[in-house]
Input
Amino acid sequence: MRLWLFIALVISVFQSYAQRSDFATVNFNKADSIALEYKNDGLYNLPLLSHNLTSSLSTDVEKFRAIFKWVSSNISNDYGLFEINQRKRQRYKNDSLKLEEWNARFRKQSFKKLLRKQRTICSGYAYLVKKLSDLSQIECQIIQGFAKTSTIDVSTLDMPNHAWNAVKLNGKWYLCDPTWASGTPHPETNKFEFNYNDGFFLASPKLFAINHFPVEQKWLLLENSNPTYQDFLDAPIIYGKTYRNLNAYSQPKTLFNTVYKYQKVTFQCELSKTINVKDVKLMLDDGSSSKTIHPENTTINHQTLTIEYSFDRTGIYDVHLMIGTDLISSHTFEVKG
Output
């Protein structure tokens, strides 16, 4: 292979998987402290806010970090507003004129609420990250698409339901989700609680694609290995804490699986940090009882975690992969005799 072609291929592969590890040597402590310092600043003067967050930082990645951290740490996710918007969009999905009228009215209402109460939905988060980035001369895009969580019925996922960002740093595009980074609903009250998740900052495209599917597929940032929309719908459920532990999740590729008793099932993923193999476990629930096991055939080789397991009884099982107390993934297995 000619040297120039080899170099081009290496660069192409490297660019395809732009992620946080590209900035492993960057210390974000200063950017994070600045985001905290201006915690009480409102949104009525965005140029000043952008200046305060970025003017003392020397690199674009640090500037973007301060912007992303501030937005994700100060803007509340308004679940009620999201549900209202989804209901209206579903109602008007076959009437383009009414849908556009609703979208225009909703944008005005939601923007006012964002400025006044610092509450919004995903589109507001993505808009604010882009606006503050633009003011700091950092190229940033709002990405529209589909997203999956454990509470979403994919059979009803017929319209885009989420927005996130792509940012250009050092000539490469990176993905991030300020909405999902900001926090989670309280398990009992379902009210939003701030709980910053750093895993959604410059996230791995391979992991991102499991529960994010952009309308424009170029924003998968996966070049020649793009999943289809059906692949996205069929993919397993992964969780917020997955992004704190993994760079990729490769097996099993589907949420619903059919296997036979004693057939080997392989779970495989790429770790983003060092873990103890003793912390890896599977939770199995057959509908009437559940148990947690530490599979004997669990190995870690060059950050690749591999688990091999076989069911010794027939039935239908929900299987959850855990690393320590972090829930990583969920699958359903129908085990036949």
Observations:
- DSSP finds eleven helices and 18 strands in the chain.
